[in-house]
């Protein structure tokens, strides 16, 4: 099948499929769910055309292999004051490059309900257009409203979101039960299929996990100061644990600025003792960091899926996450595959850390159950098969 994918992605993730491997940049490092589905499609013998963009390049790029072609459009903003205008100009440019390649596609699949989906919607009468909902804009609109810039960005995003989700020509996919329920309530009971995020089979840890001799914890977020990711509460919980176990360490992975309010608050409250700020790291290094830890702690207040949970499950690391954090309890099956707690309360995170560190039987049970469930439900080939089945069913309906 010939499949178009419109989404943020890192072109270097597919470098082994290109004719030439020279000068392939690396950006959009956090789109692991997209990378997994594209590589899964390629592994299963399908042809993929990717439409993506980046603020990190000055001119458009194209990468090509026997079964893949990746178009990368520059979205570098010269003047921030025209950022909103530039955003809609970006949509028109996406439409143009999609139109030039539409003849070679059987289906077109956008990810997230924003610019990429808006561009793809233009062609929903020419071929089946799909859109996987990967966050929930009405929730984010309430969270990110502290600055004028945030308010403008998310109000524009909400307009785009509404335009997309009310388009009856788009075939929507929810990436979790939580996302499904949000969509069901928002669009008056319209039912849509659920297809989970996937993880590449090669990321599964084959051998038994060796835990570090001293406790090492890890937490991961694209931006450490993101209020939705709730890192301050985790740091307070770790401070309490570290006072009792001074040799323990916490690794924080994600972007941050030294002069940010988040770092300033951490210093005021003395929350960075035995905490290592790793910054944003390539996926290969991230896997190595996860392997070096005792527990993966995900204190996020809301997730429509939470791909990092799959990373922990795949590497046989026990997980602590939020019992009310959107899709998280669905992914961890209400605590069967990870320790759930009220992550708004530092004492509950602390108690969960102690429970896993002090009970080897409980830890091993979580890890074994999670790993086996992951193998049977989240591997790339399984998720690709579900996508292909859906594509074919819609294609057959249109014939």
UniProtKB/TrEMBL annotation:
- Sorted alphabetically, which keywords does the UniProt record give? Transferase
Per its UniProt entry, which superkingdom is the organism in?
Bacteria
Q: Name one GO biological process term.
A: lipopolysaccharide biosynthetic process
Q: Entry's Pfam families?
A: Glyco_transf_4 (PF13439), Glycos_transf_1 (PF00534)
Q: Is Electron transport given among the entry's keywords?
A: no
Q: Which CDD domains match?
A: GT4_PimA-like (cd03801)
What's a Gene Ontology MF term here? glycosyltransferase activity
User: Which SUPFAM superfamilies does this UniProt record tie to the protein?
Assistant: UDP-Glycosyltransferase/glycogen phosphorylase
Query: Mind telling me which PANTHER family this protein's record contains?
Result: GLYCOSYLTRANSFERASE WBBK-RELATED (PTHR46401:SF2)
| Stated name of the protein | Glycosyltransferase family 4 protein
């Amino acid at each position: 099948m010939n499949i178009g994918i419109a989404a943020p992605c890192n072109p270097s993730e597919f470098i082994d499929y290109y004719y030439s491997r020279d000068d392939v940049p690396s950006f959009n490092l956090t789109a692991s769910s997209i990378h997994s589905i594209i590589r899964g499609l390629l592994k299963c013998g399908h042809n993929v055309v990717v439409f993506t963009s980046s603020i990190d390049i000055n001119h458009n790029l194209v990468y090509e292999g026997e079964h893949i072609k990746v178009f990368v459009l520059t979205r570098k903003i010269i003047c921030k004051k025209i950022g909103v205008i530039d955003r809609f100009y970006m949509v028109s440019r996406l439409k143009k490059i999609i139109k030039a390649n539409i003849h070679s596609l059987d289906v077109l699949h956008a990810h997230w309900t924003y610019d990429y989906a808006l561009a793809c919607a233009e062609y929903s009468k020419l071929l089946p257009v799909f859109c996987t909902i990967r966050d929930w804009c009405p929730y984010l609109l309430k969270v990110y409203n502290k600055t004028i810039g945030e308010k403008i960005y998310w109000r524009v995003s909400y307009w785009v979101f509404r335009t997309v989700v009310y388009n009856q020509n788009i075939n929507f996919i929810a990436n979790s039960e939580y996302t499904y329920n949000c969509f069901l309530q928002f669009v008056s009971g319209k039912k849509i299929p659920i297809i989970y995020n996937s993880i590449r089979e090669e990321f599964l840890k084959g051998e038994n996990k060796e835990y570090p001799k001293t406790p090492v914890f890890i937490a991961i977020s694209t931006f450490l100061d993101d209020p939705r990711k709730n890192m301050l509460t985790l740091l307070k919980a770790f401070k309490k644990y570290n006072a009792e176990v001074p040799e323990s360490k916490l690794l924080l992975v994600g972007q941050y600025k030294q002069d940010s309010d988040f770092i300033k608050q951490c210093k005021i409250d003395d929350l960075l003792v035995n905490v290592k700020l790793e910054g944003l790291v390539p996926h290969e290094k991230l896997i190595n960091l996860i392997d070096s830890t005792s527990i993966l702690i995900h204190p996020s207040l809301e997730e429509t899926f939470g791909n990092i949970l799959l990373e922990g499950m795949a590497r046989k690391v026990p997980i602590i996450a939020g019992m009310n954090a959107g899709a998280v309890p669905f992914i961890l099956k209400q605590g069967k595959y990870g320790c759930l707690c009220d992550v708004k309360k530092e004492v509950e995170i602390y108690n969960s850390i102690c429970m896993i560190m002090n009970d080897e039987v409980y830890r091993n049970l979580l890890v074994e159950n999670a790993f086996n469930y992951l193998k049977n439900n989240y591997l790339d080939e399984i998720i690709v098969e579900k996508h292909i089945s859906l594509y074919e069913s819609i294609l057959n309906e249109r014939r």
